[in-house]
Amino acid sequence: MKNIPSVCVASRAPGYGVCFFIFCTLAVATTLMLSAPDTAFAEGQGPIYVPEKYMAGRVLIQPRPGLSPEKLDNIISEHGGRRIFLIEPINLHIIELPPQANAPAIAAALSRNPHLKFVELDGALQPDFYPNDPYYSSSWHLPKIGAPTAWDSAQGTGVTIAILDTGVDTTQPDLQSQLVPGWNFYDANDDVTDVHGHGTAVAGIVAAAGNNGVGGASVSFQSRIMPMRITDPAGYGYYSLMAQALTAAADYGARVANISFRNVSLSSSVDSAAQYMRSKGGVVVIAAGNTGNLLTDPPRDSLTAVAATDSNDARATFSSWGDYVDAAAPGISILTTTQGGGYGSMTGTSAASPIVAGVYALMMSANSALQPATLDSTLLSTALDLGTTGFDPYYGYGRVRAANAVAEAGQTSGADSEPPTVEITSPGGGNVSGLVPVDVTATDNVAVTRVELYVNGSLVATDAFAPYGFTLDSTQYADGQVNLQARAYDAAGNSASSSTVLVTVANDTTPPAVAIQNPADGSVVSGTVTISVNATDNQQVAKIALSIDGREVAVWHDSSSLSYQWRTQPPRGKGKKQGPASSTISATAEDIGGNAATATATVTVTR
């Protein structure tokens, strides 16, 4: 539920003129594991979600910014893993595990490491739709959402919509003129031919050509379609391919992306990629699912999840529901394109999702200056409230209304002068050593785009994906005090810094060497005695404390020597002459890492 405010390797696709990140053929070479939805547990930690289907021998990891590749290798090598691909824009590592490895158990174990932001299996998702209904001759959904009125102001011109799906039929007459270069992330080539039919239907709903006397109309018929195949031949789409396709789409100009697959919001990898797209000014729309049941998928600010309604604005009985649902749209018998140049109708939240993607595109063409958070707010606040007043888990904030959303978008200013707020929540101070997790909270009236970590005034790492966190390698700094500060930015360029947090680097484990130079152990003393202490350390002596007979009498800071005048006073026995007595002198030296050592001398005090 959204809040509404008041690598890999880069390869040039032949003939396309743009460079896409490619995944090679990893999906082909890996076994698809089938299991009941389940969880795996790491000792002392929460569960790892185990998708119904996932790739065996693979886990996806996003380390905290600041963790070096060498240190990441040390972490994963304990489980026999090795890095094979990196989706660089979102710092997502694809890890190959040994043959026969228990991927859920390893993912659960790795999730215990505080320097990994998340660890997940590479889930495989099916397209989420019902088979095509009998041909439905009119596009009832378009007047229902007010699209004809919206078209008077905006038709999607200048907006590219990425369709992350099974491919697109590039020979379909209503789609040919709409296409821009895309990529097949499964086979690592530019053949985006639809292997299933689902992608062609989705593309036709959102942006089939209009006013051409052919077929039907789409929501945003002046927009362009970027086909991104993220499935195997059977139609299963993978978290890793979705994440890669989103980052590539964002880099090459798409401002809207549609993923009509169920359970997408369960993936932290896809969430990170969607956050990356939002940092480029784009939005990502997903289908809520067709189970007809309550789903506990997590709400994601980066994803707009869409439920389905019928022609009477009632919830479609098949439409899944839960707190992750943001909005609703028509999803029954939606006229669209089919493979082979034909037309038919599509039913399911897979049909509702591209309708919302099209409305986003209309809003963007009406006002290109609007940032994703403002687009969200406008889309949801103008929706027709259905069900319980306000937000509810069946319709989200309501059924989208294109005419209202476009009208408000055209009148909304994209200006933002309010800076974010940012705070380092951990560590709060004290001694640190080794790899140190640094947690940061950052909020903004619109949206935070990135958070930077500074150590002693120098930038050391940047995190663009909430929740924000870093790894500080304290071994790169000399023992002693260092200051930490975070700085957050929003899309308008406003920024703010956190308060400075002072920590003491204490990686040194070698204690100082300390010696009592005078008096010597076993000597006899009287009167005023000069006690002399010397200390040395491989780093720095922080203090020397002197005690006599268990009572501390002097403390010298930031010095390697101490001199103290001791007026000896041996005890008197009652009614007896004063006689000699034994006293113990102890000197404790401590270094800046907190390591300490003590020297003692026992002397005889006489009159």
Alpha carbon gyration radius: 33 Å
Number of strands: 36
CATH fold label of the largest domain? Rossmann fold
User: Could you name the ranges where pLDDT drops below 50 across 5 or more consecutive residues?
Assistant: 5-30, 35-46, 131-137
With helices defined by DSSP (H or I, 4 residues minimum), what is the helix count? 11
Give structural notes.
There is one protein chain. By secondary structure, the chain is an alpha+beta fold. The chain folds into 4 domains: 91 residues, Alpha-Beta Plaits (2-Layer Sandwich), CATH 3.30.70.80; 269 residues, Rossmann fold (3-Layer(aba) Sandwich), CATH 3.40.50.200; 85 residues, Immunoglobulins (Immunoglobulin-like, Sandwich), CATH 2.60.40; 93 residues, Sandwich (Immunoglobulin-like), CATH 2.60.40. The longest helix has 18 residues. A hairpin with a 4-residue loop joins strand 35 and strand 36. Helix 6 runs parallel beside helix 9, helix 9 runs parallel beside helix 11 and helix 10 packs across helix 11. About 7% of the residues have low confidence.
A few lines on this structure:
By secondary structure, this protein is an alpha+beta fold.
Annotation keywords:
607 residues; alpha+beta; Alpha-Beta Plaits; Rossmann fold; Immunoglobulin-like; 4 domains; seven-stranded parallel β-sheet; six-stranded antiparallel β-sheet; 11 helices; 36 strands
